[in-house]
Automatic annotation (TrEMBL):
Database matches in PANTHER family: SIROHEME BIOSYNTHESIS PROTEIN MET8 (PTHR35330:SF1)
Lineage summary: Bacteria, Bacillati, Bacillota, Bacilli, Lactobacillales
Reactions this protein catalyses: precorrin-2 + NAD(+) = sirohydrochlorin + NADH + 2 H(+)
Sorted UniProt keywords: NAD, Oxidoreductase, Porphyrin biosynthesis
SUPFAM superfamilies: NAD(P)-binding Rossmann-fold domains (SSF51735), Siroheme synthase middle domains-like (SSF75615)
E.C. designation(s): 1.3.1.76
Pathway(s): Porphyrin-containing compound metabolism; siroheme biosynthesis; sirohydrochlorin from precorrin-2: step 1/1
The protein's name: precorrin-2 dehydrogenase
Amino acid sequence: MGGGRIAARKIQALLEANAKVTVISPSLSRKIDPKKVHWISREYLSNDLTGYSLIFAATGDLLVNRQVTEDAQDNQWVNDISNKYDSNFFNVAVVRHEDYVIGISTTGKSPSAAKKLKERIQAWLVKGN
Ligand SMILES: C[C@@]1(CC(=O)O)C2=NC(=C\c3[nH]c(c(CCC(=O)O)c3CC(=O)O)Cc3[nH]c(c(CC(=O)O)c3CCC(=O)O)/C=C3\N/C(=C\2)[C@@H](CCC(=O)O)[C@]3(C)CC(=O)O)/[C@H]1CCC(=O)O
Ligand SMILES: NC(=O)c1ccc[n+]([C@@H]2O[C@H](COP(=O)([O-])OP(=O)(O)OC[C@H]3O[C@@H](n4cnc5c(N)ncnc54)[C@H](O)[C@@H]3O)[C@@H](O)[C@H]2O)c1
């Protein structure tokens, strides 16, 4: 749900993992290629989650995001980009290298610290350590 700036980042990672992505959002960021996702151009409705296993509540409206996490069933993974306490999983920062894939998490404490550490590890690997 949601097709903005943060949705675009999450979608990029999903497409790299060969996921089949559906976006429900009245607007779509220019960073999301409409040919690579199934875009349903409207606002979220409460029965939209049926059949999906991985759900991102990524609208700019905190109340809609909360509604999405409330509508999710126990067997669905749901991530509220605006409120970590309503998520049942977190994304990790990922370093991809020809020999390694390294995931970095602060378990929700500081996404910007995870990003900084990622960049330091990337720079360290490039130096050829
Ligand atoms: C690692 C990364 C992966 C990814 O997104 O794929 C990721 N966030 C990234 C970046 C980033 N996020 C934010 C900023 C702005 C600066 C800042 O505020 O720090 C930046 C930096 C930027 O954008 O440059 C803001 C922010 N993030 C969350 C909230 C809501 C909240 O905290 O409740 C808010 C709004 C807070 C507010 O508005 O007050 C929540 C989450 N973000 C997480 C992951 C999960 C915990 C990860 C962990 O424990 O380390 C968690 C809990 C849930 C989730 O999203 O899965 C990715 C690294 C990008 C990369 O790899 O380059
Ligand atoms: N988790 C993270 O990594 C992270 C990082 C930075 C910011 N944030 C949080 O993200 C939020 C802002 O996200 P953004 O920058 O992507 O916003 P944005 O304004 O770029 O995008 C919001 C999107 O939601 C859509 N939308 C609005 N109402 C909707 C509805 N009822 N149903 C479906 N779609 C709807 C809009 O059309 C738009 O596409 C803030 O709450 C901020 O705290 C999270």
